[in-house]
Design a protein that fits this description.
This protein is an alpha+beta fold. The protein contains 16 helices and ten strands. Helix 1 crosses helix 11, helix 7 crosses helix 8 and helix 15 packs antiparallel against helix 16.
Length: 375
């Protein structure tokens, strides 16, 4: 009996499809079982990969970690494992940079099974047509109808995404962002925060969608939040949400949002590497992604699912409505020190939004944290 263990994150989107697909895999592979454990989203993000790799055969991971783990020997490089044809097919079916986000130093460290980037969401019972321009978002916010996830990590992602939408280089050299651009972005964020309910500073995208989707008088619109197709499915929440492309600045369209999602990785120390890799490639494949994985509550990373009439019909066209944002999203840095910068940078931007720091002090602190990450 081959008993494999996996770790994922504690949300129906992160846990339920792993359980469902593992049961199906076990039926097709007698004598194999895969059990999954879950942790809160924050605990999942904070737990060191080394600790998980020592304990689990399979791990659902975030791509910014790959720079730290590429040279560690903790994960199995999935290229050269006898699945090269499948790997090439997955690369061809990537939504935006989802698949290449797990490639680093010439190797593939995980397979994209979930694709996400900040997109817009709205209540169709309150808004007929969502804003496409930032100026329209501000007008809606002045009417008290907007919410935005602004816990530290999301505050930083919004800061970088707005800068990228303005075509500004971000983290492409010794400077994090042009000073004038950074000041403009902080000004935009400060303006909208002044128009929002203060609880937004303590909410992640799930919190925003729970508020919008389960409260009769909840917000009508959110301009940026990592998409959750679950909230657009019948029966998931009281007021199903419709997702749309993120708004742009000055006609720039939705481009520049910071790509997220998750990938499935295999521990190099697993005694069942071959089986774990076989499961990973199967769950990332077009058939599973657009079928069982989606039906069990997953948000696929394979373009076959994003093109699927079935997946779109069941999610109020979540995938077609937000595809442009995904395809034009930005791949954040993944160098070895990046995760430290991300942790510090989120707090720095959050302090500014709380009114605890000036824009100049905020930009100084962000630059210092970025330089430290490079060192």
């Amino acid at each position: 009996m081959a008993e494999l263990r996996g770790m994922t994150w504690d949300h129906s989107r992160g846990f339920d499809p792993m359980v469902a697909t593992s049961k199906a895999f076990a039926v097709a592979h007698p004598g194999v079982s895969i059990t999954w454990e879950k942790r809160s989203l924050q605990a999942f993000a904070d737990r060191p990969i080394k600790e998980m790799a020592d304990t689990y055969d399979l791990m659902v991971i975030d791509h910014p970690h790959v720079g730290e783990i590429a040279r560690s020997g903790l994960l199995l490089a999935l290229d050269g494992t006898g699945h090269d044809d499948e790997l090439a097919e997955l690369a061809a079916r990537s939504v935006g940079a989802s698949h290449p986000s797990y490639e680093f130093d010439g190797h593939q460290w995980a397979l994209a099974i979930d694709a996400a980037t900040p997109v817009a969401a709205y209540r169709p019972d309150s808004i007929r047509t969502p804003p496409t321009e930032w100026s329209e978002v501000i007008s809606l916010a002045r009417d008290g109808r907007v919410a935005l996830a602004l816990i530290p990590i999301n505050a930083l992602m919004t800061f970088m995404g707005l800068a990228r939408n303005m075509d500004a280089p971000v983290a492409e050299g010794p400077s994090l962002v042009d000073r004038d651009v950074g000041r403009d972005v902080l000004g935009m964020m400060g303006e909208i925060v002044s128009l929002l309910d203060r609880r937004c500073l303590a909410l992640d995208p799930i919190g925003i969608y729970e508020w919008m989707g389960r409260t009769a008088d909840g917000p009508s619109y959110s301009p940026f939040g990592y998409g959750y197709s679950n909230y657009s499915r019948n029966g998931y929440c009281r007021f199903p949400l419709v997702f749309a492309n993120a708004p742009g600045i000055g006609g720039n369209g939705p481009r520049g949002t910071v790509i997220g999602g998750t990938g499935i990785a295999v521990s190099a120390s697993s005694p069942h590497c071959d089986l774990a890799a076989a499961f990973a490639f199967w769950i990332a494949g077009a058939e599973c992604q657009s079928g069982l994985f989606f039906d069990a509550g997953g948000q696929p990373g394979n373009a076959a699912a994003w093109d699927s009439d079935h997946c779109n019909a069941a999610s109020r066209n979540f995938f077609r409505n937000t595809r442009e944002t995904l395809e034009t999203s930005w791949l954040r840095p993944r160098h070895e020190g990046y995760m430290g910068f991300q942790d510090r940078g989120g707090d720095i931007v959050h302090d500014f939004l709380r009114g605890a720091a000036t824009d100049n002090a905020t930009l100084d602190a962000l630059q210092a944290a970025y330089e430290e990450s490079l060192a």
